[in-house]
Design a protein that fits this description.
By secondary structure, the chain is an alpha/beta fold. The chain folds into 2 domains: 2-173 and 352-369, Glycogen Phosphorylase B (Rossmann fold), CATH 3.40.50; 184-350, 3-Layer(aba) Sandwich (Rossmann fold). It is 45% helix and 16% strand. The protein has helices at residues 17-31, 69-81, 94-97, 100-106, 128-144, 153-163, 184-189, 209-217, 235-245, 259-267, 283-290, 301-307, 319-331, 333-350, 353-369, and strands at residues 2-6, 35-41, 55-60, 88-92, 112-116, 147-150, 168-169, 196-200, 224-228, 251-255, 271-274, 295-298, 312-314. A 7-stranded parallel beta sheet has the order 3-2-1-4-5-6-7, with helices on both faces. A 6-stranded parallel beta sheet has the order 10-9-8-11-12-13, with helices on both faces. Helix 1 (17-31) packs across helix 15, helix 8 (209-217) runs parallel beside helix 9 and helix 8 packs across helix 13. The radius of gyration is 20 Å and the shape is globular.
Length: 370
């Protein structure tokens, strides 16, 4: 089959859960012999890394506008699609899904799949108009797609109750990685195995990094706190975080990291903290679990679904509760090690890309043969 992906920034993933989701799924689709077209913004797609003729990266120009960047890129991607023979079109996220009816007009015989990753309008970086538009995109995606895929049980129930359709629950996946030694991270930030607490994601307010900083600064420990990620049109929030951390030399901001460097950071951390106020299904959390890291998570439904009792939870937004859980695992390395082993076993069983990709391919085949 010839499958087109629309809505992600590009391939391979530099940052972002959607980009990591697409990278994992595309990798398995190519291995299965399918031809995959990935639309992405110019400057993100890296054609020099493509080693398989079945992966076609298509660069789309975009404008660095917070509210319109993704929509402009999606619109131009759809126009390009009109000149290609495609068997399945796969939309990612609710913003791009707002233009799904345009595909139905221009390519009415091509089945469309929509993956509902999260309710982005809950994220605090968006203004009133953007939140209205994202809610509209959610409605359009759920009503016009030939098949909706939801990545968490929470979203599955939400979709059934609000749109009365029959979504397919297919979660995010992860590959089980090979761990690497602390070479580059030791040279750049003086990080040694087991010497730091890790957080990975985008520096946006709903990710809750402010609670982690407040909790950490009340703890007496020689373990460092490493914040991996950068802002996304959230300069004021990033400035706030740096001000919170400015008097603590133990806190390290690395900026966005990917590839071998990110692998080292995951491989050598003592534990990971996921303090989000809202999530779809966090790939950063699943990746931490795939490295066998013990995790401390906020008690939102998406996080608890992912871990299913294999980590410690704290009350969302309650940094004092987070402080207690941090102190507990810092003082009990044996418990931390046991939790990490349980987390690894869970991702092996529930979040394998082998199983997830096969479920997705079955949907493609059913729609293509309809």
């Amino acid at each position: 089959m010839r499958i087109a992906f629309i809505g992600q920034k590009g391939w391979p993933a530099k940052t972002g859960g959607i980009e990591r989701h697409v990278e994992g799924l595309v990798t398995k689709l190519i291995q299965a012999g399918h031809e995959v077209f990935v639309y992405g913004q110019s400057g993100y797609n890296r054609r020099n890394l493509v080693k398989d003729k079945n992966l076609i990266l298509i660069n789309i120009p975009s404008l660095p506008l917070k509210n319109f960047e993704a929509i402009i890129r999606t619109f131009l991607s759809i126009i390009d699609l009109c000149f290609r023979k495609i068997d399945i079109i796969h939309f990612q996220s609710i913003g791009p899904a707002s233009l799904l009816p345009l595909v139905k007009i221009l390519k009415p015989r091509t089945p469309v799949v929509f993956t509902f990753h999260c309710q982005d309008y809950h994220h605090q970086k968006w203004g009133v108009f953007a939140r209205f538009y994202l809610k509209l995109g959610e409605k359009i995606g759920n009503r016009f797609a030939d098949q909706v895929i939801t990545i968490s049980q929470e979203l599955t129930e939400y979709t059934r109750n609000n749109y009365h359709n029959d979504p397919a629950y297919i979660p995010n996946g992860v590959f089980i990685p090979e761990k690497s030694e602390a070479k580059e991270i030791s040279a750049r930030w003086n990080l040694q195995p087991g010497s730091y607490i890790l957080w990975v994601g985008r520096l946006v307010r709903h990710k809750g990094v402010q609670y982690l900083l407040k909790a950490y600064q009340e703890i007496k420990t020689d373990k460092k706190l490493v914040i991996v990620g950068a802002g996304s049109y959230t300069d004021d929030y990033v400035k706030e975080l740096y001000e919170l951390a400015q008097d603590d030399e133990r806190i390290i901001f690395t900026g966005n990291q990917a590839g071998a460097t990110l692998n080292e950071l995951f491989s050598n951390a003592y534990l990971l903290v996921q303090p989000s106020e809202s999530e779809g299904l966090s790939i950063a959390l699943l990746e931490a679990m795939s490295y066998g890291l013990p995790c401390i998570i906020s008690d939102i439904p998406a996080n608890q679904e992912a871990m299913s009792g294999t980590g410690l939870t704290f009350k969302t937004k309650d940094y004092q509760d987070l402080k207690l859980k941090l102190e507990r695992l810092l003082a009990e390395p044996d418990e931390a090690k046991e939790l990490g082993a349980k987390a690894l076993a869970r991702v092996r069983q529930e979040y394998s890309w082998d199983d997830i990709s096969q479920q997705t391919i079955k949907i493609y085949e059913r729609l293509a043969n309809r």
